[in-house]
Write a structure and sequence with these properties.
The strands form 3 sheets. The protein has a 5-stranded parallel sheet, with helices on both faces. The protein has a 4-stranded antiparallel sheet with strand order 6-7-8-9, with helices on one face. It has a two-stranded antiparallel ribbon with strand order 10-11. Helix 2 runs parallel beside helix 3 (64-73). The model has no long low-confidence stretch (mean pLDDT 89). It is built from 8 helices and 11 strands. 41% of the residues lie in helices and 21% in strands. The chain has 2 domains: 7-126, Response regulator (Rossmann fold, 3-Layer(aba) Sandwich), CATH 3.40.50.2300; 131-228, Winged helix-like DNA-binding domain superfamily/Winged helix DNA-binding domain (Arc Repressor Mutant, subunit A), CATH 1.10.10. The protein is α/β, with parallel strands linked by helices and 229 residues long. The protein has helices spanning 15-27, 38-47, 64-73, 89-98, 112-126, 160-171, 179-187, 195-209, and strands spanning 7-11, 31-35, 52-56, 82-86, 104-107, 134-137, 140-143, 148-151, 154-156, 218-221, 225-228. The protein binds calcium ion. Calcium ion binds at residues 13-14, 56, 58-59. The modification 4-aspartylphosphate is found at residue 56. It is found in: Cytoplasm. Residues 132-229 form the OmpR/PhoB-type domain. This is Phosphate regulon transcriptional regulatory protein PhoB.
């Protein structure tokens, strides 16, 4: 089920390292999927693109660099941050030289605390609402940490689904989201929900946003979906 939890795909062939990381990520509120090789990682990304990928450089068969290169050339996965793990600093230099497009590099053995901090730094950029950031759009303020939304300084009451919808919109004002994309992001791919359900919740969100007056900030884009602003 989709939640406000950010999803991380962990690609690491060494079971012990994989499990330590999985444990720490889950304890920190991440939803984790794991792959033990590059092929499996690419298949998992095809199923559902994660919010972030932690990718070991040394993997059997398809290397981490190749996985990174492939994902960074695909328009649907290009924006997913990738943190590469590498055994030696010379490898990191080589990764940089290869211009694989990785967003960050961490050298093994790494401190889990440092890796978690790097993960959060990437997500603050790409998924601010899931790492407790405050989002603002015109007179609307959404505080992801306290789950409070105000408009023109007045508190708005939103249901959990409407809250997730609004945070999705507020992360990327102006972006047009199709109903299917909103379903994936807000409800999750593993749940069957009719696309009309999206319309119902958009209706509720609109009503809540305009409760104390103000223009409807949500735009219906015919044949495409919805956008904020
Ligand atoms: Ca490895």
């Amino acid at each position: 089920m989709a939640t406000d939890q950010p999803s991380v795909l962990l690609v690491e062939d060494e079971p012990a390292q994989r499990e330590v990381l999985r444990y720490n990520l889950e304890a920190d509120g991440f939803s984790v999927t794991a792959a033990e090789n590059g092929e499996e990682a690419l298949l998992l990304v095809d199923e559902a693109a994660p919010d972030l990928i932690v990718l070991d450089w040394m993997l059997p068969n398809v290397s981490g660099i190749e996985v990174c290169r492939q994902l960074k050339t695909r328009s649907d996965t290009r924006s997913v941050p990738i943190i590469m793990l590498s055994a030696r600093s010379e490898e990191v230099d080589r990764v940089r030289g290869l211009e694989t497009g990785a967003d960050d590099y961490v050298i093994k053995p790494y401190s889990v605390i440092e890796l978690m901090a790097r993960i959060r730094a990437q997500l603050r950029r790409t998924r601010p609402s899931v790492v407790g950031q405050r989002l603002e759009y015109e007179d609307i303020i959404l505080d992801a940490e306290t789950h409070r939304v105000t408009r023109d300084s007045r508190e708005l009451k939103l249901g959990p689904t409407e809250f997730r919808l609004l945070s999705t919109f507020m992360e990327k004002p102006g972006r047009v989201w199709s109903r299917e994309q909103l379903l994936d992001r807000v409800w999750g791919r593993d749940i069957y929900v009719d696309t009309r359900t999206v319309d119902v919740h958009i209706g509720r969100l609109r009503k809540a946003l305009c409760k104390h007056g103000g223009d409807d900030p949500l735009r219906t884009v015919r044949g495409a979906g919805y956008a904020l602003g």
